[in-house]
Every structure is written in C-alpha cells, then in structure tokens.
Amino acid sequence: MTWTAASAPLGRRRITVSDRRTYGAYGVLVLADTNGPDPQPGQFYMLAAVERWGGGADERPFLPRALSVLRAEPGRAHFMLEDVGPGTDRLLELAVGDDVWLLGPLGQGFQPPEEGRRAILCGGGVGTAPLAILEDALRAAGTASVALLGFRDAPHAQGAALLGDPRVATDDGSVGHHGRVTELLSAELDADPHAVVYSCGPPPMLEAVRAICEARGVPAQLALESGMACGFGACYGCVVPTRDGSYIRVCVDGPVVDADRLDTALVAGAGH
Amino acid sequence: MTWTAASAPLGRRRITVSDRRTYGAYGVLVLADTNGPDPQPGQFYMLAAVERWGGGADERPFLPRALSVLRAEPGRAHFMLEDVGPGTDRLLELAVGDDVWLLGPLGQGFQPPEEGRRAILCGGGVGTAPLAILEDALRAAGTASVALLGFRDAPHAQGAALLGDPRVATDDGSVGHHGRVTELLSAELDADPHAVVYSCGPPPMLEAVRAICEARGVPAQLALESGMACGFGACYGCVVPTRDGSYIRVCVDGPVVDADRLDTALVAGAGH
Amino acid sequence: MSGAVDFCGLALEHPVINASGTFDAIAAQRVFGDALLADFPFSAFVSKTITLEPRAGNPPPRIYEVAGGMINSIGLPNRGLAGYLEHDLPSLAALPVPLIVNVMGSVADEVVQLVEAVDARAEIAAIELNVSCPNVKTGLDIGADPDELARLLAAVRPRTRKPLIVKLTPNTADVARVAVAAEASGADAVSLINTLRAFAAHSTRPGAPWLGGGTGGQSGPAVRHVALAQIAAVARRVTIPIVGMGGIQNGRHAREALDAGACIVAVGTESFRDPLAGQRIARELAAPRV
Amino acid sequence: MSGAVDFCGLALEHPVINASGTFDAIAAQRVFGDALLADFPFSAFVSKTITLEPRAGNPPPRIYEVAGGMINSIGLPNRGLAGYLEHDLPSLAALPVPLIVNVMGSVADEVVQLVEAVDARAEIAAIELNVSCPNVKTGLDIGADPDELARLLAAVRPRTRKPLIVKLTPNTADVARVAVAAEASGADAVSLINTLRAFAAHSTRPGAPWLGGGTGGQSGPAVRHVALAQIAAVARRVTIPIVGMGGIQNGRHAREALDAGACIVAVGTESFRDPLAGQRIARELAAPRV
Ligand SMILES: Cc1cc2nc3c(=O)[nH]c(=O)nc-3n(C[C@H](O)[C@H](O)[C@H](O)COP(=O)(O)OP(=O)(O)OC[C@H]3O[C@@H](n4cnc5c(N)ncnc54)[C@H](O)[C@@H]3O)c2cc1C
Ligand SMILES: Cc1cc2nc3c(=O)[nH]c(=O)nc-3n(C[C@H](O)[C@H](O)[C@H](O)COP(=O)(O)OP(=O)(O)OC[C@H]3O[C@@H](n4cnc5c(N)ncnc54)[C@H](O)[C@@H]3O)c2cc1C
Ligand SMILES: Cc1cc2nc3c(=O)[nH]c(=O)nc-3n(C[C@H](O)[C@H](O)[C@H](O)COP(=O)(O)O)c2cc1C
Ligand SMILES: Cc1cc2nc3c(=O)[nH]c(=O)nc-3n(C[C@H](O)[C@H](O)[C@H](O)COP(=O)(O)O)c2cc1C
Ligand code: FES
Ligand code: FES
Fold this sequence. Notes:
Chains C, D: One of its GO terms (biological process) is 'de novo' UMP biosynthetic process. Chains C, D: Keywords: Cytoplasm, Flavoprotein, FMN, Oxidoreductase, Pyrimidine biosynthesis. Chains C, D: Pathway: Pyrimidine metabolism; UMP biosynthesis via de novo pathway. Chains C, D: InterPro entries: Aldolase_TIM, DHO_dehydrogenase, Dihydroorotate_DH_1, Dihydroorotate_DH_1_2, Dihydroorotate_DH_cat, Dihydroorotate_DH_CS. Helices cover 20% and strands 30% of the residues of chain A. By secondary structure, chain A is an alpha/beta fold. In chain A, the strands form 3 sheets. A 7-stranded antiparallel β-sheet of chain A has the order 4-3-7-1-2-6-5. In chain A, α4 (181-191) packs parallel to α5 (203-216). Chain A starts with 12 loop residues before the first strand and ends in a 14-residue tail after the last strand. Chain C has a single domain, classed as TIM Barrel (Alpha-Beta Barrel), CATH 3.20.20. Chain C is 32% helix and 18% strand. Chain C contains 10 helices and 14 strands. Chain C is globular, with a radius of gyration of 18 Å. Chain B binds chain C through residues 58-59, and chain C through 67-68, 221-222. Bound molecules: flavin-adenine dinucleotide (2 copies), flavin mononucleotide (2 copies) and FE2/S2 (inorganic) cluster (FES) (2 copies).
C-alpha cells in the first residue's frame, strides 16, 4: 500500500478562517478549503494572511509560511502553530472570518508501514502537527500505532490533546515522563524492534531519533523543516544535504524523507 | 489676543484609542492623551499604529501620518480621517483599546481675528477637522463665526455634523448648495467684507480661497498639507514655496500660514 | 489577454516573463500537474543560470527574509551545461512559450562554450548572459566594468545569431555606462536589475553570516525603486530593448517599469508568494489605466 | 547608561549619533523646548550637509514612502557656509554633545574653503566630508571612484587637524576600494551608507518622477542589509574607525552594525518615526545580549 497525493491546484486560493482554537501555547487554525484535494499525512501548505502580511518585527513577514496539515476533514484543513516570529504571530492573530492565501497541499508525505508492522509516532512541539493527521490515516487503514510526544513544559504539553492517547514527556517534568521523548522511543523500540518510526520535531530531537533508528536499523520517516521562500520548488532555498553528497529541496523532495538518506537531521537555519 | 502653543513633549507617547466613530465617509478617532498639553486650533500630531504599521498597499505605511486635531477635550484629542491610502486605512481599522504612537501637538496654529472682526471658516473634506477646534476656540473667546463646508457628495457631507451649524455645499448637489463652497464664501464676503477667513481643504479649494481673499484684500489664514516624514523639522521634506522665493517647512513654520505669504496654495504632492 | 509584444524578434503574448532563477517549470509541473502548461504564467520562460560544470550551490541556509523582500544566497546550483541539455531541455522545450536560457561563466572561454552549445539548439529562442560573476583576478563583477564586459562580448557575440540579452549587475557606480558598452558590443537587449549585494547577520554568532554562502543578494519590493532608477538611467542611454525587473508585484509596478523605459518586465520574488503572479500582472497590465 | 566610546579622540557617552540631514537640533528645540537639551538623543550631533553657497534645495515633493523606508530628494538646502557659521553654529555649540559638521563641495577648491573655515572654529569637534557629490565632468559621484577621492583628499586633508570622516557613497561597485583610498589619503574615519539611488514614479504622469528633484535616495530598513554588506566589506580592508548607518531601528540592528565592524552607529530615518530613537537604541544596545 502507498499513499499518493493529488496535484496541488495551480495558484494560491483565498480561504476563510472558520475556527480558531487554543491548546496552551499553541493555536489551531481551521480553514474552509472546499476546493483543494485532500492532503496526505506529512504534506504542508504555504499560508499568508491576506491583510497586513507585513508590519511585524523587522517589517516582516513578507514571504508565506510553510505549515504542516494537522488534520483534515472534508473541505477543512487544520493547522497547529506556535508564535515564534512575525509570520506565526500574524497568523495566530487571525479570527474567524479573516482570509488567508493558501497554496497546496505540497510536498511528499509519509508512507504507511509495511503490512504487519506497527507505527511509532515520535514528535515534539509543533512537530506534533503532521503526526495527528498520520495517526488518523493509520487508524483508518487499520494500522496499529503509538504516539510519543515531547514538550518543553505544561502549557506546551496541552498540544498533546491533538492526538488520540499519546505518551508525553516534558523537559521540566510537569507532565508525563520527566525527560526526553527519545527516551520513550528507545523503550518502545526495545519492546518492539520491528516497528517503523515516524518523526517530526525540532532539529535536535529529529536528529536524536535518526541516530537511534540508525543504530538499531529501524526504518524511520522524518518530516523536515527548512527555511522556505516558495514551497513549490522555484527558489532552491530550502535544501538540505543528503548522504550522497547532493542537496534536496525539502519542499518538493520532502518534507518527509527516509532517515537513511540523511547523515544528519540537523538542518541549518531551521528551528529556533 | 494671540493663542500660544506649549512645547510638545519630547518623544512619541503610546496612547490608547478610547472611541471610534463614523460620520459617513469619515472616521473619528478619540485618543486618551492625558499627558500632553492642550493643542491649539490648527495644530497637528504625527500618528502611527503601534501594531502592524506596515503590510498595507505597497508594503506601507512606514512613516507616521500627520493629522489635524479635530477637537480637544481635557485629556482627549479627536481626529477626523478619510481612507485615502495605507496610513489612513490602518488608522481607521483601529478599535477601542488599540494603541497608537502620538507625537505632538505640533506646528503653528490659527490666530484669532482682531477684536470686532467676524471669522469665516471655509473648508472641505478632511479640511473640516481644524475648523471644528477653531470654531470651539472662537466660541470660547466670544468671537462670532460662520462655517462654510464643501463636500463631494452626501456620504462625505455627513462630516458637516462635526461643526456647529455650518452651511454646506456639495459637488453633486445632494446636500445644501449645489456647487463649490467658494461660491458661499464669495457671498459671505460680499455681505461682510470686513471678515477674516480661515481655511483648510484640498489644494485646489485652498488656492481658490487664497485667490478670492487676495482679490478682495481680505486677510486669510490657510492650513496647508504637505507630504511629511517627521513633523518636527528634521527632514526638510514638507516644504512649500513662499512669495519671497524661499521654502518654508509646513511642519514647523505652518501648517497655518498667512495667505499673503504664498503665491499659490497648490502644494505639489499633497492631496489626492 | 491583449498586450502582445515583440521582443528581439520573439512574439510574446504579453510583456511578462519570469526572472531567471525564480521559477522552476519542471518542479512546478511536478507540483501542479499539467494545469501549469494550460495556464502558464509567463510569456517566455527563462531558465535558471547554467554554468559549464555542474554546481551544487551554497550550503543552507540560503534564504533570509527582510523588510519588503528577501536575501538569497542560492549559489547557482545547476546540472551544468551537458546535464541541462540532456535532462532539462526536453521538458522545457515542451512549454507553451519561447525558451530563454541564462548562462554564466567566469572566463570568456567558458561563456563561449556555453553560448555555442546553446546556439546549436533550435528549441532555445534566446540567450541571457548573466554577468554578475566575479572576475577571478579583480574580484569585481564582470558586469561592473564596461571595458571588461566589452571584452567578454567581443568574444561571445560572434558565436550566436540568437538574440543575446545581457543581464546587468546593479552593484556598480553607473549601470548606464555598462549598458552602453553592452549595446556597442552587439547585445540585442539588456535585462536589469539583478539582486543587490546584502548581508544578513547570524542570530547568535556575532559578525558571522546567517546565510551559508556568506553574502547574498536582496530582491523584492524593497529594491523596486532602485531598479526603476537603473532602468530609467539605462533607457536614456541605449536603444536596444530592456527587460525591467526588481520587486514587481502588480500591474501598476510593471507599468512603472515599462514607463521608465523597459520593453518587457520580469517577475521574480513575487512568484514565491503567488505562483500565478506573472499571469495576474499581465492581466492587470492589460486593464486600462485608471 | 554604559557604553562610552572613543571615536577619533572624541569621548562619546554612547555609540549612537545621528545621520547627517535627519535631525535638525535647532528646529527640534523650537518644537520640544529645553527638554531636548536635557535628554539629547545622540552622543554627538552631526549637522546637515553645508555647502559654500546657500542652497534652496529641491522643489517639492521631496519625500516618497516605500516598502520599509523612504526616498528623499531634499537637495541639500542650507544657508551656506557663512550663514551656517553665523546663524546655526552658536545654537549648535550649546548642545550638550560634540558637534560634527558635514560639508560638501563639487570641486576641491570649494571643499578646501569649507574645511579651512570649519577647522578655524573650536566649537566644532570633527568634520564629515560628504563625497556623494557628482563630479561636474564625469557625472559620477566623486566618492564612486577611488582615484578621484584620493585627489580630493590630497588637497583637503592638510587643511585641518580635526578628525576628518569621509562619508562614502553606496552607489559604487566596490565601496571597500574607495574606503582604502580614503584611509591611504589620511581620512580618520569613514561613514556609510548614504542613500541608495532610487526613482519614484509619478502617480499620473507616465515616466515622470514623483519627486520634484527627479531621482532620490532610499533609506530605512529596506537598505539595512545592503549597509551591513558594505560595512563588513569596508571593515575587512581598513583599520580606521567606521560609522555604520543605514536602516538602524533598534539595539539589535545597531549591534549587528557594530558586529559587522562599525565603531559607532548613526541613526537616520528611524528618528522621523521616533524623535528619541537615538536614545532608545543606545539604551537597548547597553542591555546585555540575549
Ligand atoms: C514543511 C514545514 C512544515 C512546517 N509546519 C509547521 C507547523 O505545522 N506549525 C508551525 O508552527 N511551524 C511549522 N513550520 C515552521 C514555520 O514555517 C517556520 O517556523 C516559520 O519560519 C515561522 O515564521 P515566523 O515568521 O513566525 O518566524 P521566523 O522569524 O521565520 O523565525 C523562525 C526561525 O526562522 C529563522 N529566522 C529568523 N529570522 C529569519 C529571517 N529574517 N529570515 C529567515 N529565517 C529567519 C530562525 O531559525 C528562526 O528561529 C513548518 C516548516 C516547514 C518547512
Ligand atoms: C498638517 C497636516 C494635517 C493633516 N490632517 C489630516 C486630517 O485631519 N485627516 C486626514 O485624513 N488627513 C490629514 N492630512 C493628510 C494625511 O496626513 C495624508 O493624506 C497622508 O499621506 C495619508 O496617508 P495614507 O497612507 O492614507 O495615504 P498616502 O498613500 O500617503 O496618499 C495620500 C497622498 O500622498 C501622496 N502619495 C501617494 N503615494 C505616496 C508615497 N508612496 N509616498 C508619499 N506620498 C504618496 C499622494 O498625493 C496621495 O494622494 C494632514 C496632512 C498634514 C500635512
Ligand atoms: C532565489 C533567487 C534566485 C535567483 N537566481 C538567479 C539566477 O540563477 N540567475 C540570475 O540571473 N538571476 C537570479 N536571480 C535574480 C532574479 O532573476 C532577479 O534579477 C532579482 O530577483 C530581482 O527581481 P525580483 O525583485 O522580482 O525578484 C535570483 C533571485 C532570487 C530571489
Ligand atoms: C531626509 C534625509 C536627508 C538626508 N540628508 C543628508 C545630508 O544632508 N547629508 C548627508 O551626508 N546625508 C544625508 N542623508 C543620508 C543619511 O545621513 C543616511 O546616510 C541615510 O539616510 C541612511 O541611514 P538611515 O537608513 O538610518 O536613514 C539624508 C537622509 C534622509 C533620509
Ligand atoms: S521553498 Fe523554494 S524551492 Fe523549496
Ligand atoms: S515633515 Fe520633516 S521637516 Fe517637516
């Protein structure tokens, strides 16, 4: 079984915010995207507010921002955001009825595990987003999965509510396991070395996941982040180096890549 | 009797919008400026929204915008705006509770007429603003005045409600006199050649007023507009040519100037 | 849409093309499918700069956002001449618009080889020569110095009868003087502006560059009025057509570039915000002036 | 506030001065009263460019707002040398900070007269020489050509023992080469960047300029990263101190200019938005790095 994505509609679409929710440190935007195809888990969209995109810190944002799909219902796409700069700041300011420019769905998403293998979803921070839609898709496909999520503290750990029944780790021990989510991952892999790992999160976490899976010979699919200008292969801005010594564009060749294509998941300039 | 302005406080102040009203095509902002000195009629302030100043048409506004005081109560200043570009657009978007940067009061305002002379206030469009505070001041001083206001059409003519009991002219005849406000002015001056004229409005109107008063030998004080970057004499951007062949800065030598200092009130680049 | 225009003998449906390096038609077709061909946003397609040898480009990060635009330090990644002709040209030749190939070399001999190889391919309608390449000896861009550019064109011009567009660098004291040299040396057109040299500071390492490539080039609306000044200065001094670009976001901006003396315009950074920007701008341009 | 700095022998209380032509201390005192003296926003005051003869400046409009900044075409209005010394100098000498006078001439003889007259006045701490003046013969800015600048400085440098700061033009192919020439010719410091040449189109007259003076100069955050690139390029090649400016709006921006190699910074356009910007930036700069 493979999941195949439809072409993105050519051109950005003007879409209305139909809901705006808060989960502790995170905001969720729900967009009424009735004309686009269903996004695949791991795909992303480029978003920009139609009004006042600009005028924030350093007179930014100017370029649209890449956001993973958090969840898709027919005609609606959900996004999870953390306010880390002028772009996410502006998007989080939007209220129901405001409009955004939306381009997508874009990029290569996750692929389901081979028949009979369990999926371990391991993420952190806003990296939670693509794991939620992945969890939905695995459930629909009848594939067993477990989710492990790491957060900084209790306000961030509220993001865990976006998944079914995840195990949570926090840096400060305020919620769940006191420590790193990769410690939970190692324990899971000890118990089930035959599982397949799906991961998204801050670069150091992603790199730790990559290293653990490499050491254990476990297949892993990593959803990368990278600074993007366009999201559709036009600018060559979003590259990451691969093991074979070349660069790939995260927007068209990713964002999900097989971990064994990379020497490192520490992407220069991504994350905070 | 002369009216003298206090120094403006050094530096911009962060001020909250305490009321936002609409008069047809115009919006009125009321700012709770409790620390500034009372503005004089004809003075202006530089305003900018604290949040999202920028991100409008052509990625503007960037510089603050000059706005005449419409009316002053203790601790409150009123402003009248028409949406003509990205700056006024953003300011008119503000709601009660939003903050603006305010610098002022700035510039040279109107001076009262000599004892015993009547004041004719003749304005148009947003040029109504300084005439309202002038009308208040004349009333307080016991000076007789009449106000003549010109507007494009009925939605704009609602701005007339900002003055006591003005005579109105509209270009399309929808309200009041069908024609130019300068026709009303000529009639008033026929009846009272001894009056003093105070005027603010779009450059062609202001120039017509200037020409009428010059031809009749009537003293007139004109409140000029000009593209401004700073408002406090720093940039030399706001100059207008005077009769003596030099340039004066509208922000510090004006905005109100005696009409006989000018050969023309048609300021290059001002107005729409 | 009205607005057909002749540019160096190429019959273009409208006056809006893409700026080199800001639209990858092959990737876009992968993303958007055949809709891209049915609705191609530009009246000609300019490919990314091609060099003789393959280049990997600069290490990331390659992009930094600034007030009204961005700085890029992409580093001209490309498959090299042979790879381009073999892998990319067949797909690009299938586009519904004329194809312009942008080439760059650091010495005349390289440029001659590039131009001769491109000249031999009937699928290619015109050649754009990117002269923002530093001279190996002086470190100055070749296109910053009229004499150096004239020497390069003396070697290159005779090698092709296809229209030859010289893409000028804005990082020079007097771009008009360079344009005059290009015209005198047989260029059929000039295009400008390329990006303005700019530096983005690292967020945590004082004095270090944010961009993997070190210094980069600024584009977008923040440079639009610098572009207009250069286009107008060049238009006063040459009679060959000008491709005007730099920060164009809408029909009014395109109109201002044409009014300043450009024959056609190119859209770069705005396509990143709106993949159909070229088409939108052509439509806005065709609307009557207000 | 900590952050005292020595600049060419001037003991400055903090590293933030004003950019020439962007703050009129006399007008500001008229507007804000003596609070200006009590709370002067800069650690030195740089006056607007003074020329030998009085200049009225350019016809309005003089200002055009752009993405992240503005274009000005003020045209250097000033009372001329004699008028400045008689009318302005007494008030400026009363400011609580050292006074730097910016001068410009189109031929060496003019500059020599300006520098000698300024040198004679003890109230003046240093001289800034604006070399963004077009050469009457070539039309190119004097400061765009290292040789021409060297010739000018050979004539001017011997006429004063006050610190001589050369304000470079950014409209050149290689600003570092010009800075090297300035250093070799005896400049005590260089300042950069001046405004980028830019054109604003008229809203209704196609091809015509909006600005009364025709072309103008762009400033503000839109040029900040161009400034950083030029400051860094100059810092790599000279040892004399650099006054860094161009789009600085806050302490982080100032810090980036210092990290790129500037000794002190100057604030221009941001003062139009916030008359106390200089003071705010100095305060932010003094705060510990985060
Ligand atoms: C495929 C993909 C999916 C993503 N999904 C999500 C998601 O679901 N939710 C979410 O919240 N985020 C997501 N992101 C991340 C998000 O797109 C970026 O963090 C984005 O840059 C935020 O914009 P900002 O303006 O808020 O912050 P920025 O100012 O862009 O800061 C974010 C990071 O960008 C870098 N940076 C800082 N200044 C600049 C500058 N001037 N120019 C360029 N880079 C700078 C720094 O590393 C900084 O930490 C995703 C990114 C990708 C590529
Ligand atoms: C002393 C004074 C008092 C004023 N009082 C009031 C008042 O009470 N109420 C009110 O509504 N207005 C008032 N104005 C006018 C107001 O400040 C200007 O119209 C202001 O420019 C509006 O900003 P904007 O961004 O909305 O429009 P802008 O885009 O600035 O357009 C307004 C006008 O500016 C010019 N313009 C267009 N583009 C540019 C550009 N890029 N750069 C520079 N100029 C451009 C054109 O002439 C245009 O018609 C006053 C002006 C002055 C000087
Ligand atoms: C990401 C990016 C890549 C670019 N690559 C090239 C290139 O390969 N060759 C070239 O001649 N110009 C290149 N340019 C410059 C553009 O073609 C154009 O000259 C410049 O961006 C100004 O136009 P704009 O402001 O519309 O983007 C590139 C610009 C950007 C932003
Ligand atoms: C309105 C205005 C007037 C200026 N006048 C002068 C001047 O008289 N002499 C000069 O050397 N530079 C002048 N400049 C350039 C500034 O000193 C400074 O170099 C430039 O604006 C970049 O800094 P900024 O981006 O902080 O404004 C002027 C700039 C502006 C915006
Ligand atoms: S974001 Fe532009 S190529 Fe990937
Ligand atoms: S607005 Fe700057 S001097 Fe008048």
